[in-house]
Design goal:
single chain, alpha+beta, Jelly Rolls, 2 domains, six-stranded mixed β-sheet, four-stranded antiparallel β-sheet, 1 helix, 10 strands, 36% strand
């Protein structure tokens, strides 16, 4: 027969363990929300995150590299597409010289939704490539265009492109020893639309 004091002790330690686990779970949720810890990483540009883009949302990368990608978008490479976004770098007071490096473009895929790796590769950073965004200038409007197929410039789709995914890389290769160590990057109003030509009847 189990001693009653032992049962009471086990029940007490069970309640303590339950409370500790609940506190850890709550802390993990809050930390993920505020960017104190990162979720599962993707082996791409230093193990950055991969989440979906919606043009009506704002995205924030707090102090470490983050990659945002959209769903698959079908494209007609005979058209010209504009890819634009608003972006700013946030830094602590007194760090006006702080900046963050940004990439904005598309990843090109074939009919089977496989990335097209030949030529200059699947990633075409038509809007921003290694662009430094300084905290002192506030919001910056970035716009680029993609049209046609080829490997001459990042403003062309890869040959055979049928789908793309938008890609944003924020705080790329963050330098923890620089003035930019504590910066965050915020992006909003991401749009990817074909250019319309109007002709008079």
């Amino acid at each position: 027969m189990i001693d009653p004091p032992l049962i009471q002790a086990l029940r007490f330690f069970g309640r303590v363990l339950y409370a500790v686990l609940a506190a850890i779970g709550l802390l993990a949720v809050v930390s993920l929300q505020f960017g104190w810890i990162r979720g599962p990483v993707k082996e791409h540009f230093g193990g950055a995150r991969d989440v979906a883009i919606a043009s009506d949302k704002s995205f924030l990368s707090a102090g470490s590299p983050a990659t945002f990608t959209s769903q698959f978008v079908p494209v007609d490479t005979n058209l010209t597409y504009n890819l634009s976004a608003q972006i700013r770098t946030l830094a602590p007071a007194g760090s006006e010289r702080a900046s963050a490096r940004t990439y904005i473009g598309v990843i090109c895929y074939d009919q089977e939704k496989q990335p097209i790796m030949q030529g200059i590769g699947a990633h075409r950073y038509a809007t921003a490539k290694n662009r430094y965004i300084y905290s002192s200038i506030g919001w910056v409007n970035l716009t680029g265009e993609l049209s046609g197929e080829g490997d001459m410039t990042p403003n062309q789709f890869a040959i055979g492109t049928k789908f793309v995914r938008l890609v944003l890389i924020l705080n790329y290769k963050h330098d923890p020893t620089s003035d930019s160590a504590a910066t965050s990057t915020e992006v909003k109003n991401v749009t990817f639309v074909p250019r319309v030509n109007l002709n008079r009847d």
